[in-house]
Each structure stands twice: as structure tokens, then as C-alpha cells.
Amino acid sequence: MTGLAIEVRFLTGRFVATAHNDRDRTEWPPHPARLFSAMVATWADSDEPDPDERAALEWLEAQGPPDIAASAATPRTVVTHFVPVNDTAVVGTSFYNRRSQRLDALAESLDAALASSAGATDKEVVRLQTKRLRERDVSVAVSNAGNTPESAAVELLPAGRGKQPRTFPSATPDSPFVTFAWPTEPEHAVRVNLDRLLARVTRIGHSSSLVSCRLVADPPPANWTAGPGQMTIRSIRPGQLAALEKEHQKHRASRPRSLPFTAVTYRAVRPSAVDSAVQVPDTAGEWVVFEFAPRSRQLPATNAVAVARALRATVFRHAADPLPEGLTGHRDDGSPLDRPHVGFLPLPFVGVEHADGRLMGVSIALPDALDSESRSTVLRAIGEWEQNEPSLQLTLGPAGVLELTRVTGLFDLMTLDPAVWRQRSNSWVSATPIALPSHPGDLRARNSSARTKAWARAEEAVVASCRHVGLSDPTEVTVSLQPLTRGSRPAPRYPAFRQAGRAGVPVARRLVHAAVTFEQPVDGPLVLGAGRYLGLGLMRPAPNRGTEQ
To answer: Which of 73, 194, 264, 411 could join 235 in a cystine, given CB atoms 3.0 to 4.6 angstroms apart?
Structure first.
């Protein structure tokens, strides 16, 4: 292997760190800037920081954003804790406020004196240092118990101590390992110094996020890489070490601080399948997920197509003309595109014990095979939407207005997590009904022979839908008008789904639920049928044929 890879192992199985743009959310995957900051802090904590290790850090900061390999993670529900203030007001709050202001002024004066003096022995420097030490000494005030106000004394007791609200968002990854990889091979001395420095790093993020770090020769495939994508990650840049040192001069490890970084967009990538037998449908790819506000989670899944069309129209409105074929799904002459294009997929709460079929959010699906122009157009349109609108909304007419926000980190709702829909499985079941590509006939015909033939043709249409997305024929197919997984809604309750047929004449597509089983496993997300780009035919992986997940 060429290049450099750093493996971080979270020793407690948890990563506690607040997202830089939302204090109620957890950062995941860990950002490269946070790793680099931990390495710099470890280097600077030495009695005599090693200049060779500094040179290694400066080499690393110049390598650009790394690829990241990180498993899925489960966020812990954020609970506000009220933490007692450590330094209680023994002699009253006003005393400490005045003292803090004097110490700040002395620190600024001392910094200025050091900058303009010959060194620490300068008389003015010595005077200010002595005055600061005297100001920090509260022994006289504390020992003067006879004059301590009653209110200040009460603050010493547990019930009287002031408390500050704090949140500690954390993530529990499926695997406690995260790897950062750069393509450039460092010189031997740089590698040795980085490895020695990493061995001393004890935490990343909150002090409870204990880690062990090391260089590895054979990193796992990355699933996050820099490029046009939906996640903004704080990475490093040349001059990062100097910026951290400058920032430290401001906060002196005691004031509020900010982490220098360069913002880089990352996109999720599918690691190359080791097992050649695994099937990947052409609907698989990256999802940009939007979460509905709690009061907007009232619509049943039967509104899926209406929500999909509203989101599609919104993206079109904010996209620059001319719209690429990969976004519209049509050629210039109006004929349907014969390759994967952008999909709009509402996400219903189905497949688990208390599932009720409500729509919890919606995703914009960017297939792996999508051309770069269409991908960039979609992402720029989302950015324009977010910048130009005070809040994100979808107008559905009589169904009302939906409020939503784009999810940029971990997913609090399982239904919205793409990992749930892209699991590898041999068996899949429809969350929303499949719009059959050909009409099977009357599934409710009174004549038993005609009815049997219609259901057989429906099964054949489901098999054809699997072929359309590049999969082998399933070994088992079950077709039904009723739901086959908990929370899903019956197919007849969905509004009629029509598409342009020959000569532009609208054709009504028959909607059915289906469960399919393949001999070879399939990696999702999997969406089947003629309505697969507008919220129909969304399939949920099931561990065993006929069981609910």
C-alpha cells in the first residue's frame, strides 16, 4: 500500500463530540480537523515540543482532505444536564466578576509587555507577573470567614451551587474504528514521527472520548471521500498548525475557543464489493435526506407521489437552466431516459413493531451511475434553496405545507438512515407499492381462470422490474394488494399513478405490493417499478423471506 493511513480506535465504543453547526447533534464521522487538533495538542503538551514532530505535522497539514472509512453509528438521545459550577462564589458573585475582569486586563498587559520586552526578566514583565499571581491568590478572602456573606456561604452547599446547562451528544458506531487515508507516501522520518506522536494521543473530542491511534499499512475501503456531496466536513489546510497556535494565544486554554478549519464537501461512496456474487441495482447510490418537522409527520405513505413531485418541482425551480437529462429523466425530445437518473423518495415508517406508515422525511437519490453534471446541478440547487429560503417548505395544495430540514450528520430517526435501506439482503419487501411496467389485467376478476392469469402476469411484471434495474430474476415472488410489512398501506388506497405512454397518452399503472427473494444477495437501496423515481416501489431489506424487520 502507498500513502498514509491513521487508524483511530474509540476505546469506550463511543464518540462524544458536538457538531460544529448544531449543538444538539453529534459529529459523525469524526472530522479530520478534530484529529489534527488532538495531535497538535498532544505535541504541544510536551515539556519540550519536538521540532521533528512539528515538521511531520506540517507535512500532514499540506496533504489535503483525506478519505474516511467509518461505520454507521447510532446517536444517543441528547439530554440536557445541569453541571455544578466548579469555582463556587465563596465571597460572592460580584467579587469573582470583578476579579475576572482584572485578570483579563492583566493578561493582556502581560502579553503586550512580553511582546515589546527583552524577555521574562524585564522589570515590567516581572511586575505584571507578580501582580497577576497576587490577584489569583484568594486565600485571604477565603480565610476571612467572619465577613463572608450568608448568600455566598449557601453557594458552597450542593443544593446552592450554581449549575450550567450542558449537552453531551455522542455516537455509538457499529465498529469502534475510523481510518483517515491520504494517497501520498511520506518520507520515513515523517512516518516515524507521526507514529510516535499518535501513540501519545489519548482523546479526540470530549475528554470522555478515549482513543488509541496508530498508522496502519492496509486501511479498509473508504466510504467518505472529498468531492461534490451533501456533507460538509472540517478538514485541514497548509498553515493549520500555525492557526491553532494563534488561536491558543487568544484563549490560553481558559476562554471560549474555535477550531480553525477549511470546509470541504464529502460524499458517501460505496466500497468495492469483495464478493463478486453481490448484486448492486442501478438505483443504488447516495441519498440527500430531509427530515420533516414533528408537526409535518402526519401524512400517510399514500401521499408519497405528491411529496415526491413537490420536492422535484422545488429542485427544478432552484436549478440553473438548462436542466440536465440526469435530473429531468427525459431527453430533449421528451422521451424517457434509458439510464439511471435522480429520484425523489419519501421515506415511510414501516417494518418494525410500532410502525404506522407515516412519512418521516424524503430523500433525493443520486445513483452511482449519475453523470457529474447532473449531480452538481442537484447539489447546487439544494444550496440555492437553503440560501434563498428562510425555512425549507414543500407545498402540497390541499394536503398543506411540510416543513423540513436537511440532515447533515447522524440520523436520529431510523427511517431516514440510508444505512437501513442499503443493507445487504437476499429478501426484500415493498414499503410503498410497485407501479407495474405492464398491465396484468383484472386482479379481482370474478372468473378464477382470468384472475389466476392476471396474478401470474403481475408476478412476471415484478420480475421484469428487477431486470430493469440490473438484477437477476428473483427465485421467489409474492404479489399482494395488501401490505406485506408492518405499517405499510394497502395498494388500492394510493391515488392512481399515471405516466405518459405512447403518443403522450397517459397510462394508469397497476399498483401492487411485492416480496422478492434472490439467490444472490443485493445491496440497496432498491427501488422497483415504473414509479421508482417518484416514491413508488421503495423496497426494505428483510433478513428472512416472509418475516418482518
So the answer is: 264
Pairing, β 177-182 against β 18-19? unpaired
Tell me the pLDDT of the chain averaged across its residues.
Answer: 84
Residue type present at position 82: F
What is the DSSP code (8-state) at residue 41? H
**Is 325 strand, coil or helix?**
helix
Residue found under cell 461505520: 71
The residue whose grid cell reads 413531485 is 309
Q: The pTM is what?
A: 0.71
**221 DSSP assignment:** P
Q: Calculate Rg over the CA atoms of the chain.
A: 30
- CATH fold group of domain 4-78+175-268: Alpha-Beta Plaits (3.30.70)
**What is the residue type of 326?**
G
Helix, strand or coil for residue 486? coil
538 in Cβ contact with 431 (< 8 Å): yes
Cα separations in angstroms, 364 against 237, 289, 414: 31, 6, 17
Which value, to the nearest 10 degrees, does the dihedral of the CA atoms of residues 15, 18, 19, 25 take? 90
Asked if the model's pLDDT at residue 97 lies above 80, the reply is no
Domain ranges of the chain: 4-78+175-268, 82-166, 285-542
Lookup result for grid cell 515538521? 55
**Minimum mean pLDDT range among 17-26, 395-404, 494-503, 530-539:** 17-26
